[in-house]
Amino acid sequence: MICFSRNDLERIGKKVTVAYMRSREVSEDDVYQVDPEQVAQDLFHLSLAHFHLSSDRTVLGMTSPDEYWVEVFDEHMESKFCCLDGKTILIEQDLLSETVPLGRYNFTVMHEVAHQILFYYSAREGQKVKFRQYPSCEKDWIEWQADTLAAALLMPERLVRKAMTFVALPPKIYLLDSLLCPEEYTKFRDAAAILGVSKTALAIRMKQLGLLEHSDLFSPGKIMDIFWEEGDTWSNKFAS
After folding, report:
1. CA-CA to 76 of 20 to 30 Å: which in 28, 40, 220, 231?
2. Secondary element (H or E) of residue 205
3. What whole-number distance in Å separates Cα of residue 212 and Cα of residue 218?
4. Between these two residues, 230 and 107, which has the higher pLDDT value?
5. If DSSP codes are grouped into helix, strand and coil, which group holds residue 82?
6. Tell me: the pLDDT tens digits for 9-38?
7. Taking CA 156 as the corner, what is the angle to CA 151 and CA 160, rounded to the nearest 5 degrees?
8. Which residues have CB under 8 Å from 90's CB, separation 6+?
9. Burial category of 137 from C-beta neighbours within 10 Å (exposed 0-12, middle 13-18, buried 19 and up)
């Protein structure tokens, strides 16, 4: 198995981004987000199909470098078998629901595209990739690589900075907190919508790029615990 570093994955991501921008029929200045379906279909000639991939909906995406038959379920949860032929991506059908954030669907598709890109690079180096036949520690590493590459593909640094500028965010955010910095948080949320990604994915990516210092995305106000002393109350905490 090839072990790609973060720098390796960033370089691969930049190559794909350049190709994606060239494939668009509009000026690069008018591109604000990367469409994972276009990357899959137009750049890598991959087919996308949507089924229920597990009875409990825990499997969101599947792909394989070689022919591999998998069990899927139709909308009535009747079992059937589908062939992953090395050029097919299967996506959980529920992710198409209007109740599911678009960012979750986009990242899932790009994650599977990233697997296909990594299959290609591994094959080019003469490394045999086995689908679903590796120990858990190796699986975690493979999934980390796919996640990291998917983030680089969906959120190229230039587009992240472009979205931040568009919503009037500063070049770098010190604290992302909906309670303590509501105006900045609202702008950040709008930037995520422009990029077509989740707030969590964007926060992680911005930290990687050095554009975000600290995030209390799911624990607003938590940073104030640093200054909390025993016996303090909200009424006297900021009195002095």
Report:
1. 40
2. helix 199-208
3. 15
4. 107
5. strand
6. 999 999 999 999 999 988 988 999 999 999
7. 100
8. 49, 50, 51, 53, 61, 62, 63, 70, 72, 82, 84, 112
9. exposed
